[in-house]
Amino acid sequence: MMRAMRARLLLLFGALGALALAYRRVLRDRHLTWGATPEEAGASLPGDELLPDADIVATRAVRIDAPSSEVWPWLVQMGPGRGGAYTYDWIENLLGLDIHSADEVLPDFQDLEVGDEPGLGMRVELLEPERVLASRSGDGRWVWSFVLVPDEGGTRLVSRNRISMRGGGLGARLGMIVMEPGSWVMERKMLLGIKERAERMHAQTAVR
């Protein structure tokens, strides 16, 4: 019995190892830099200094056909019990986060300040209206920054996640095999959700 169980565990760890190797060689770079240019992925961005020795850095981006002034409101209202996350709400709610993504700018959640905690255990550390919004987790092991860059009448919205695995152990590292592609799926939807909302608002404003 023990020998059979040991054999199954070895097969399981072998499969996980093969999966991790395949992911790293084939998909990982695409997931970690989805939508970003090589220059954006390699650049030093505001907020990087909050976690300089990160083990994982993901830089994802989208171009939005709207000025930064019409992108910013969607960022500052993000969070559970606020404007949501513009991603797959049903997945978020399976985790008990009570997320409901807004389709309009919510005036009650536009006065975000440094030190505020909009949700997910994150604290706003850097805020420059219409340019930078960076938050850090309470344990200091996760920094999430949004940077808005003007781009020929539109805006490049760059999202950067910096994560430290120090003290996480083997279990945490194996868990990242699932978390990394999962975060790509959710963040891709989020960025496209912000793009769709900001561009719709811009079109409505232009008609008036």
Structure, described:
This protein is α+β, with helices and mostly antiparallel strands and 208 residues long. It has a single domain (2-207), classed as Alpha-D-Glucose-1,6-Bisphosphate, Chain A, domain 4 (2-Layer Sandwich), CATH 3.30.530.20. It contains 6 helices and 5 strands. 26% of the residues are buried.
Give the topology.
Blueprint: H1 2-26, H2 28-32, H3 38-42, E1 56-64, H4 68-76, H5 89-94, E2 122-128, E3 132-137, E4 142-151, E5 154-163, H6 169-207
Antiparallel strand pairs: 1-5, 2-3, 3-4, 4-5
Helix pairs in contact: 4-6
CATH architecture: 2-Layer Sandwich
Shape: globular
CATH class wording:
Alpha Beta
Mean pLDDT, to the nearest integer, reads 85
Largest sheet: 5 strands, antiparallel
Total helices: the number is 6
Enumerate the spans where pLDDT stays under 50 for 5 or more consecutive residues.
Answer: none
Features:
208 residues; globular; Alpha-D-Glucose-1,6-Bisphosphate, Chain A, domain 4
Task: Briefly characterize the structure.
The protein is of the alpha+beta class and about 210 residues long. The protein has helices spanning about 1-25, 30, 40, 70-75, 90-95, 170-205; strands at about 55-65, 120-130, 130-135, 140-150, 155-165.
